[in-house]
Amino acid sequence: MSHELAPVGIDAFDEQVYRALLACRAASPAELAGGLSTSSDRVVRALDRLHARGLVGRMSGVRRRYAAIDPQHAVEALIQKRSAELGQVRSAAAELARLFEAARGGEAEEVEIVSGREALGRWFVRLQQEAKEQVRTLDRPPYALTTANPVEENAMRGGVAYRAVYAPEALEWPGVLDDIRHLVAHGEEARVLPGLRLKLAIADETLALMPLSLDLTDVRAAVIRPSLLLDALTHYWQLCWEQATPLLTSQPAADDGSGEGAEEDGPAEEDRLLLALLVSGLKDEAIARQLGWSVRTMRRRMSRLHEQLGAVNRFQAGAVAARRGWI
Q: What InterPro entries has UniProt attached to this entry (predicted)?
């Protein structure tokens, strides 16, 4: 059995699981274990490691099924992490590509339309790889591939800042909240905004990617280069960010000198998350499911927070919590 991914830190059995998953559209741990003549538990551990490395993603809306991330993207992200020299080569390749486009007929169009899930995925990866300072996103379902983003964590390690505004609907998809928690722990700034109707990704001030519809049967997206349209989308993103509610924070909010900053006896991280999810508009059942609680437990925790805040309903609780720096 070949072991070609060893240089990027993937052991032989994990590579075997990855290759088996590449050979099918999607599979459960039990299905993979049957084909590999091993135990489901061993396959689950391998899938967890592969997911952490950005090689596989959990299928949206389906429990315990996984899909392989396109190796052209996922393995490339691992190579980027391991080798700064390849990063320099990639920058040179991007410059050569611009020269190639210019030779074929002048400057690239300000707006380019791309079609298909794979093309959308490739452009999303490219946009993040070309970012030097920051990536800003508006995120909502449905998802063209999987909910995982194999590039973001590596980009943040390289100094690229990520700020994301999520629609409440995104938080109801299996695995998304756990992914956000992980990314926030590594530096992402996350907020939630009810009523978010579009998806958008912006790299620095130079490139944007925007799906033209939420219909996954006809995936088309606009690649937008510096122009008035890019300026307008950047301004729209800023408006959404200012109206959105912080979802998770890697550290408690700092006191701003007004006397209304975060309190030393503020809530635990799970209670902060509970408040943010309530303010975002999620229903009690969806919040309880995301936090792994029963609805009864969730409501009991909310009642206790109401008492701490002196609030009579969730909307008042959200307003008071925001003033205190709890969310």
A: Sig_transdc_resp-reg_C-effctor, TrmB-like, Tscrpt_reg_LuxR_C, Tscrpt_reg_TrmB_N, WH-like_DNA-bd_sf, WH_DNA-bd_sf
* Domain regions of the chain by residue span: 6-68, 74-248, 269-324
Parallel, antiparallel, or unpaired for β 245-248 and 189-192?
Answer: antiparallel
Q: Which residues contact 209 (CB under 8 A, 6 or more apart)?
A: 120, 123, 124, 127, 200, 201, 221, 222, 223, 224
Mind listing the pLDDT tens digit of every residue in the chain (327 residues)? 567 888 878 888 998 999 999 988 788 899 999 999 999 999 999 998 898 888 888 876 556 788 888 888 788 777 777 765 556 666 666 666 666 665 555 455 789 999 988 888 889 989 999 999 999 999 998 876 666 687 899 899 999 999 999 998 888 887 788 888 889 999 999 998 888 889 999 999 999 999 998 888 888 999 999 999 999 999 999 999 998 888 876 544 444 443 344 444 567 777 888 887 877 777 888 888 878 888 899 888 888 888 888 877 776 777 677 777 776
- Asked if 6-68 and 269-324 have one fold, the answer is yes
Pick the CATH number of 269-324 from 3.40.50.970, 2.60.40.1220, 2.30.30.30, 1.10.10.10: 1.10.10.10
The CATH class of the 6-68 domain is mainly alpha
CATH superfamily label, 74-248: Endonuclease Chain A (3.30.870.10)
- Helices then strands, each counted (H, E), the chain: 13, 10
pTM > 0.90: yes or no? no
